[in-house]
Amino acid sequence: MHSSIMAALAVALPLTAAAAPIWQNVSSEPGKRIELDRTSIKREGPTVETVGRMILDKELIDVRSGAPYLIIEVVTRYDCTARNANTLKRTFKNSDDVIIREETLKGIDLPVRSGTLDDKVLREVCRPPKDNQAELAAKTNEAASQLRQANDALLKKELARPAQATPIKTMAALPATEAAKAPSPAAKSKPTPRSQTHAAAPAKSTNGGKQAGYMLELVHNEPLQAQPSVEWGYEGAGAPENWAKLDPRYALCASGQRQSPIDIRDGIKVDVEPIQFSYRPSRFRIVDTGRSIDVFLGDNSFTLTGKTYALQQIHFRRPAEEQIDGRRFDMSAHLVHRADDGQLAVVAVLLERGPENPFIQTLWNYLPLEKHLSVEPPSTMVDLKTLLPASHNYYTYMGSLSTPPCTEGVLWLVLKQPVAVSPEQIDVLSRLYRHNARPIQATADRLIKEGR
Known about the structure:
α1 (about 1-20) runs antiparallel to α3 (about 135-160). This protein is about 20% helix and about 30% strand. It contains nine helices and 23 strands. A hairpin with a 7-residue loop joins β20 and β21 (about 410-415). The chain starts with a helix and ends with a strand. By secondary structure, the chain is α+β, with helices and mostly antiparallel strands. Residues about 5-20, about 165-210 and about 215-225 have low confidence and may be disordered.
């Protein structure tokens, strides 16, 4: 036993000491803290690559593996001049030594917005270094020496302990009542069912509605809790009429008074303020979520009544969820945006049969071959402006997310003029998702404005 311990520690000691990180606290917030490994910083002109991590107070469930995690380590490349971030790798851990899952990403450079966690890290790593390389190496060696001393003490303690066999408590040795309670190996290994929420709205933030940042975009700031046994969808047990029964968090889907979509009619005709779109050509990532086709672009936004809303993602519905005076369209594209204060706004583009749409065709050209996979073309770009109709006049009302958890307080801007897509392009979405639209909800006493 002693020989195995010595061998294990002899191998681990030099590796651990050489790779010992120096963690610096960058941000402490309710439920989490952000740290930066100073020894990992690599500078090349205005570009900095570094390792950061988020340590949570409570375990969360990794949606892919079903295992709980407390730490996310992220390798990120920052462009200090352009203020862009590109996530290269993520590692989900339950502790410093227990890795749950690793993923290498081929991301795109995305803008770092003020107030996000990435903004805090960018400011730190882009600041001119205070220590020269010799000082940094001395600090690293000092930390490694301290770690080596701790490991030496652990080794001596293990060698001084008498060897003894550790009894293993098997199922057969358990009392009958305890054995009945113990989960079977199959039950232990069964992953937690995945429950997806509306991709339009990133995970709820605990920092006043501000985004967590690209570095941490997969972190869901919600406590560990049981997942619904049936996932929400559009047919069968998970159909819209059952959403509120699947999970207590979906209660608003049944009880809410400001739900979407609605049949838009009887609006008051007024001079609505023009939407100032700041859309520009950008690279994109397209994902088949299992419920929709979602698209993520670079830096795009719009401004309305003095507030700027940053584009989060685009998803498609077949048929269009919203109706205009009882008329339903073939498809719709929902352009989901978020303001710095957390306010969500959805620009809905109605799609009807006509000539082929170049924007849609470019996306369809790169559809993933499997569900839950994503494709990021390395050089192809799209211009979101080309998806918009010639007229930007619109209907507007206050509604909700049209998927669980059906959160209310969402500003809807439905462009009045439809955009043409070809029958073949409609058929492509129909083959993937025959029907992924929520039924019309009660308008109640909501005010609807219609641009004159």
